[in-house]
Write a structure and sequence with these properties.
Length: 331
């Protein structure tokens, strides 16, 4: 018996709590996000040298951010102790330059996707919380667009200035000229987040048009390293999450705060991301809706079995057409 895949409009009135976004959401905006991995992109484009590849092999990871942070910390220790170690410094610069080149090659500029932002902001407005697993700037740009509309709805990322306020639930209350709001979180980090030399976590701010370049320039100057988990196994990603106060707070608290309904859009729920669904299973979810591209019955069968295995409480599962009207970029 095949699973029924409905138009979004048929079930949308039952889902308004949390929206979980995977890489398919970014691919729907720009096809350049259809890459295997940042590391593989760098290899395919001849950006790696032998030393950089040795670092990835030694630490048994594909995560650019982790390798960059490890080598960056090593260079800072060498400078503090006045140790002359040009090879470590060169390796740091090469890993950094590889990451910058990969992001520049893959990530579209604001102007290339600005026509999609109104539809995305309209769709996100229908949820109390938006949780994006993507490191790119699409959701952030849509937030900025939505906040400029002055339509009595506000998107908030729970940062005050450049610092995260861990009393994040208080931002869910509408106040002032706003009747409603949506809170936005990134459990795997984002390009807008960075660490300084003392491991302080910051949000990088700039105008929407120049934000991508502002982020990359801060990396180039060496004052910050990025805070996002780009690749790796489930266990490696969990370790990276635990190393960050922001990521760990989102993982422990936000993912377990879902009330009643969860919408999953553009997420393949691969083995490397099972920690996310395992965490959501500890919440009060009673209904989950998964987006489906085409008539992928194999995906429907796999995720419905996954819900039965992971969720202890009864949970109703729905499937909807990712390309139906009023959904994401079709809003």
């Amino acid at each position: 018996m095949p699973f029924e895949i409905r138009p979004w409009s048929e079930i949308s009135d039952r889902f308004n709590d949390t929206l979980l976004l995977g890489n398919g959401a970014s691919i729907a905006v720009d096809d350049r996000f259809r890459y295997q991995s940042l590391k593989q992109h760098a290899i395919d484009n001849g950006l790696f040298n032998t030393d950089v590849q040795s670092l990835f092999d030694f630490f048994h990871t594909d995560d650019f951010e982790l390798i960059l942070r490890i080598v960056w910390q090593a260079t800072n220790v060498n400078k503090a102790l006045e140790i002359d170690d040009q090879k470590t410094e060169q390796s740091y610069r090469h890993v950094r330059d590889c990451l910058i080149a990969a992001v520049r090659n893959i990530h579209p500029e604001h102007g290339a996707v600005s026509d999609k932002l109104p539809e995305i902001a309209k769709y996100m407005k229908g949820f109390k919380k938006i949780v994006s697993l993507n490191y790119d700037l699409i959701v952030y740009w849509a937030m900025m667009y939505g906040n400029e509309l002055k339509n009595r709805h506000m998107f908030k990322d729970c940062f005050v200035g450049s610092e995260f306020d861990d009393d994040w639930s208080r931002f869910g209350d509408a106040y002032g000229n706003h009747d409603s709001c949506s809170l936005v979180f990134y459990p795997h980090g984002n390009l807008i987040f960075a660490r300084d030399k003392l491991e302080n976590e910051r949000k990088i701010s700039s105008g929407a048009d120049g934000l991508l370049e502002s982020v990359l320039q801060k990396w180039e100057r060496g004052s910050y390293v990025p805070l996002f988990v780009s690749e790796g196994t489930k266990q490696q990603k969990q370790k990276s999450i635990q190393s960050s106060y922001y990521l760990n707070t989102v993982y422990r608290e936000v993912l377990t705060s879902v009330q009643d309904s969860l919408v999953v859009f553009g997420w393949g729920v691969g083995e490397h991301d099972l920690h996310i669904i395992e965490r959501a299973a500890k919440s009060n979810v009673r209904r989950i809706a998964f987006s489906v591209f085409g008539d992928d019955q194999g995906y429907c069968n796999r995720v419905s079995q996954l819900v039965r295995d992971e969720f202890q409480q009864p949970c109703e599962v729905f499937f909807f057409d990712a390309e139906s009207l009023e959904c994401w970029t079709n809003a």
